[in-house]
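I would like you to sit down with the record closing this message with an eye to the fold:
=====
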Amino acid sequence: MANGPSTRLNRIDDFNKQLEILYENALKKKEDGKFEEERRKKILKKREERELEYRKWKSRQHQTAVDQAKAIFEWGTRIANDHRSSTIFGVQGGPMRVYTGQYLHCRRAGFGSYAELDLRKDGSFRYRERYKWMGYDPGEYFELDGPRMMARHLDPNYIKEVKQSIDSGKVWDAMARHLE
């Protein structure tokens, strides 16, 4: 009596048990999804809070960054106006790398990320952010035409580091490396 009434009841019981297990798993998955959505919302909220704090901090640092950027542009203009600069830029074949530092200064930077600042023949600068293993695209530079633009677009810590590099004389080593 393999197909008798007790076998049919066993199949129905088994069916009900399996359906109950699937139902409980679905409820658990639904709850996990809610938890995951809440977790994502918290992460986004924290990220937004950090971005807001960064913008406030950058706003407080703005005048200092403008002053440091002015000094950087004055330095760049002095080099551009020097009679020896045409030979230096001619050998270099274009803008001269003056500083390479960390990309976004610990906000979202990862291993192998960096930012470059190059002096152009006219005393202005160009800037780019990149990752070590990504390809090079000459068009990915951002032109910085003046101190206010530099202060508005670059991280104040990066500007401070460039200024310190100029003040300490390390900038000359960086420039010499790119002439080699």
Observations:
- The mean pLDDT is 83.
- Strands lie at 96-102, 113-119, 125-131, 142-144.
